[in-house]
Design goal:
single chain, alpha+beta, Pnp Oxidase, Chain A, 9-stranded antiparallel beta sheet, 6 helices, 9 strands, Transcriptional regulator, TR_PAI2-type, Split_barrel_FMN-bd
Length: 216
């Protein structure tokens, strides 16, 4: 991933946290006919220093047959258009243009496939739990008839990536002057879409981190 130093995010806990938040990955693997891409939800496993990302695809999807190849998982976080009128410097010299703010994480590593029923059931239970646990009446895999679930597990194949490289880009106007950043933060917070508000919140966090502890 191309990421200038000011946008690069290298903290492992932050990168893994973003993966957990986004969940949906674009899994990209090279094949004989070019690149194969599948969008699929991911379960994060941490085994000591090892990071493992698990997902699954429909058995008719040929992606799982590419297991063994080095692959890329792309996690696209919040993203938003930046209106140049939000920059304070526009009134000073007019040398401003639109841009885009975004958060993205790339995970690189080899893929392996698994289709043992017990492994798939554990994977599906974890994937379900991470999305249902906070609900008042969470749904559980065991809520469905056992034979029905078994039939469904035969229709999917699991994919597991052992992550060899993790990289992130938090492109949040870090290189702009204070007034420009503040203008963008305020402008984004006034937008109606959730991504703009999320980017605004992330920019506020960055501003807070810029303030020396003694001045807080």
């Amino acid at each position: 991933m191309y990421a200038p130093r000011q946008f690069r995010e290298e903290r492992r806990d932050v990168l893994i946290g973003a993966i957990r938040d986004v969940q949906l990955a674009a899994v990209v693997t090279p094949g004989d006919d070019g690149l194969c891409a599948t969008h699929a939800p991911v379960v994060v496993r941490e085994d000591g220093d090892h990071l493992i990302l698990e997902t699954h695809v429909a058995r008719p999807n040929p992606h799982w047959k590419l297991a063994g190849a080095r692959s890329l998982m792309i996690f696209q976080g919040p993203q938003a258009y930046i209106h140049p009128g939000w920059y304070e410097s526009k009134a000073e010299h007019g040398k401003v243009v639109p841009t885009w703010a975004y958060v993205a994480v790339h995970a690189h590593g080899p893929l392996t496939a698994f289709d043992a029923e017990d492994e798939l059931l554990v994977h599906l239970a974890q994937l379900t739990s991470q999305n249902e646990a906070a609900r008042e009446q969470p749904w559980d895999v065991s809520d469905a008839p056992q034979e029905f679930i078994k039939k469904l597990t035969r229709a999917i194949v699991g994919l597991r990536m052992t992550v060899e490289r993790l990289e992130g880009s938090w492109k949040l106007n870090q290189h702009k002057p204070d007034g420009d950043r503040q203008g963008v933060t305020a402008g984004l917070s006034s937008e109606e879409n959730s991504d703009s508000k999320s980017i605004s919140a992330l920019m506020r966090e960055l501003e807070s981190a810029r303030v020396p502890a003694a001045k807080r």
